Amino acid sequence: MANSKDIDAALTLWRFGLGAREGDLQAIRDDPRDLLRQEVVECYTPTPVGPALRSSADLLMSLIEYNKEVQAERDRPAPAPMPGPQPVATAAGNAMEATRPTGGMMDPGAMAAPSPSSQPDKKATSASKRPYLPQQILIAEADARFNGTIHQPLIGFGERLAMFWANHFAIATGKGGDVHIMAGAFEREAIRPHVFGRFEDMLLAVESHPAMLYFLDNHQSIGPNSQANKNGKRGLNENLAREIMELHTLGVNGGYDQTDVTSLARIITGWTIYRDEKRPGPMGSFVFNTSAHEPGDHSVMGMTYAEDGVEQGRSVLRDLARHPATAKHIAFKLVRHFVADEPPAGIVRKVAAAYTKTHGDLSAVYKALIDSEEAWNPQLSKMRPPLDYVVAMIRATGLRPKPEQIMSTLNALGQPFWNPSGPNGFSDVTDGWASSEGLATRIDAASIFAHQASGTTDPREFVKDRLGPLLSAETLQAVARAETKAQGLSIAFLSPEFQRR
């Protein structure tokens, strides 16, 4: 039985988009599915903008200069102490320090201690009071998205996809300053331009991006028989090759073995970043280092790839992108992300078939997904991960919070911005977020945003306008009984229909 257009409009915004703003449900109710499909046809992915959002190469060069300046400050002799009596600690003084007021429960910055990646590098800042440059860039990148790109689209399918692919090809800012400063540039340069293009083009852009090469240590990988390893003291690093096969393309059960991983690792030796300050070159950019490359022909999954420099690795990536196992892996993850934790097999088959037929044309893949009637089941079964949840609250209220508050909230909710615990990214299933601790933290987050947005907002009208036909009688009644506007909005944010899609 087909849904009503009202139901389709709500699912368009809440399942496939970023959530509803004021009046959005009414604006799309006449042709919701057509408007969703139109975002695919138009390849609409907003572009983050801001003066600090520079290229990865520029950012790496800035980091080099920053580290030099901090090093110079650290090496500078400390000034001699001024003569005269020195302050003496007293019990009263210590007590006063201990009782100095700090942020309370409703202080957005006090929701949780910042993650390790959000802290300045102790080595880089021990002798300097200057802000940690990679974190300042990360804040600017977050601001360009949470106060920029998420507010722009009517639906936001492209923005959701950018988030999906950034998690599929996950990097982590906690790896170190190089990845920390380039995380946003990685998403802008390697992900967004290819969201509606061919998967193999995105794959090639990702695996040769400096952020990924640093994150998975390929810049340290040296061919055992390469010119750079004449003394035999340097070795092969298989991290990137393993994750390309296990996470990025074929999947865990994709038909490869350890021999294939090692062979691919040999093929992509020499994929590195140019940082030789003594010689002119493309500083901070991808470069193929012939002297570090493992020479010779190599076989991967039954295919032999002749020695061809950097093209040898590119050929392998193209073949992996076109492999049937990759089609199934990508289809499964997309359907799981948008439809259900246990993806309906019928939709997965349709999406995988579209991938195979078009050789990885992602626009065709998305059309197969949204044209599947099963994807429009009105039952809301998936819990929003913290990133989606925070975005939905910001969109629904029209708030423009400081990026530091948003990042602190995501830290507290367990999904620090671009900083998963491993290369497999953040969980995309309900069980990953439905713990009692996670739900308790959502209460705090919902309360903070509700107090900031309450103002003249009527929670009853708010919940009717944003959720429309998804709104249950129980939720409406609970909102109506709230003693304050802030409490009413908080109840709306914590309702099952707001937290699920």
From TrEMBL:
Pfam families: DUF1800 (PF08811)
InterPro entries (UniProt xref): DUF1800
Region Disordered, annotated ranges: 98-130
UniProt keyword annotations, A-Z: Plasmid
Name listed for the protein in its UniProt record: DUF1800 family protein
